[in-house]
Structure to design on (580 residues):
DNA sequence: TGAAATTCCTCATATTATGAGAAATATTTG
DNA sequence: CAAATATTTCTCATAATATGAGGAATTTCA
């Protein structure tokens, strides 16, 4: 449960796949257009039409058609002379998501209350299908959680925030994951095969929280699940301390603390807006694993 | 110069058009896929396949093909039962943009220094083609700049941050704008026709800053231009105060303050990474107006 | 575990995306 | 401000592939 895994920072790579047995996706024009965006990374934030032609092996006219569509939609922006960069739409959509997310209204005051007791850092992570994302961080110790700011992605199988979410997924989703991601699950030390995996997850549910050091080995994260509806995990609260500052009894204490706070957040979340009768979740709904 | 304009918050609407004389864009499959994303607003954050079919008038299979492509790319995420929400990719891309933006490393300490003197709020706005976006805010007075957080869009013609950028665009870009956006320019009180517009912009450049109250009438914003390269505006720094707290001589003082700070930021920005010899801007480049 | 919903697949047809080169703009320089 | 250069868009014939309908396979929830 305390294995060694690389901190997955899968920004540039290709899109997350459903991987539900089938092979790679078809190569449609939409796929190709999205593929262009994948090229724009912090390391190579500017691309010219010529570079894109070369990189993607497409005709000039095609590249310009794609780039134009992306610019019109605000996903790219043209820059002086030649070249394109990621456009304003991403910044706007992130704001739109923040505005619609009740967790970002509920959690900050809770984090503020816990701040002194935790004496480290706090993280709010949201569940998005096959990955988990940091969506809010509260820093006390400036040495801690440097790279955990909003948008930092985590594998669904690595790190305490992910694992505690994983453990509380519905049984059939767990089964699908066990089938389709056997290797990753084994590599993360979560069990070889469905039986072991299921038992490990059950053990986590019994405990109610997860403590792990598998992202940053100098730190320990203690995470509890947040439920958008009874039985439906959608996020987790993670308390962070330096490992040397967290002896076993402190870990147990922080676990209780995280669980209490997460339960409170869950209650407020479920009361935030009355769930509509017709089963359509209104906000911050639970992502499915495909 | 102190006219009445609505605070433009154009998030949900359609994509920004180049509008360079031509009519509306072609209706390609890529356009339609992007159109789906436009439906996901803070007011209607969850859409089911059936609702999308009804709204867009497309066949079931087509909707599912589109939705799948968007989910695979992380732009949508499936939620419990049925329904889709905006996906994690927007949050990740915003982070990616933040990581690559030297302004976000340079400006915070400058804002911290100014904080006490300004005694109000501060805004860093970035230029993206036809629009300007808040990308960083520093709040002192909690009553001020409530809705100016990162991602808040502004029209290129409204508000002091936009106008001071506008005024410093290259001459041919100003001319294009005067041709293609005559009505908006007139409506914003920036002049009827090219001559008047050009003169107004020249006057702003002479002054070096813009003071205006056209976004929130209770506030006054005082903005100075930030240059990514000599002669190439890419952003603006805006100092905000309540109007009653800003008599004329204070406005002049804040104008000087904003200009000095913006010049300092520009210097640091241009020194941040040596501009490459081949004219390809490396980071935070200047958007073109199309 | 079984019933009800959601999602995906198959296939024939019609639509439209593609590439090459020329024309039109935009941008920089004198 | 005008000429020179680089960038972007357009046109059109052809090949490719997106679309819709219904049935099959999943997923979801009781």
């Amino acid at each position: 449960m305390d294995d060694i895994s690389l901190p997955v920072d899968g920004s540039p790579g290709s899109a997350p796949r459903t991987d539900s047995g089938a092979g790679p996706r078809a190569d449609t024009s939409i796929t190709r257009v999205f593929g262009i965006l994948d090229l724009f990374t912090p390391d190579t934030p500017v691309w010219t039409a010529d570079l894109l032609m070369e990189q993607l092996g497409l005709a000039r006219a095609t590249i310009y058609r794609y780039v134009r569509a992306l610019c019109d939609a605000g996903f790219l922006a043209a820059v002086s002379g030649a070249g394109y960069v990621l456009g304003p739409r991403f910044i706007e959509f992130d704001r739109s998501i923040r505005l619609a997310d009740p967790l970002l209204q509920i959690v900050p005051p809770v984090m503020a209350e816990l701040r002194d007791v935790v004496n480290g850092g706090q993280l709010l992570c949201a569940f998005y299908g096959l990955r988990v994302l940091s969506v809010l961080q509260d820093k006390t110790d400036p040495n801690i959680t440097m790279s955990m700011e909003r948008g930092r992605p985590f594998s669904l199988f690595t790190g305490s925030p992910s694992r505690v979410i994983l453990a509380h997924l519905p049984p059939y989703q767990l089964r699908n994951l066990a089938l389709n991601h056997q290797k990753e699950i084994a590599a993360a030390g979560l069990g070889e095969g469905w039986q072991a995996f299921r038992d490990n997850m059950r053990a986590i549910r019994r405990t109610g929280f997860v403590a792990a050091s598998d992202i940053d080995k100098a730190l320990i994260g203690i995470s509890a699940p947040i439920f958008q509806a009874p039985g439906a995990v959608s996020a987790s609260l993670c308390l962070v301390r330096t490992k040397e500052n967290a002896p076993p009894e402190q870990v147990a204490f922080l676990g209780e603390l995280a669980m209490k706070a997460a339960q409170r957040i869950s209650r407020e979340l479920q009361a935030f807006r009355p769930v509509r009768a017709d089963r359509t979740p209104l906000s911050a709904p639970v992502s499915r694993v495909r």
About this structure: Chain B touches chain A through 72 residues (CB under 8 Å). Chain B is about 40% helix and 20% strand. Residues 22, 29, 58-62, 65, 80-82, 171 of chain B lie near DNA strand D (CB under 10 Å from a C1').
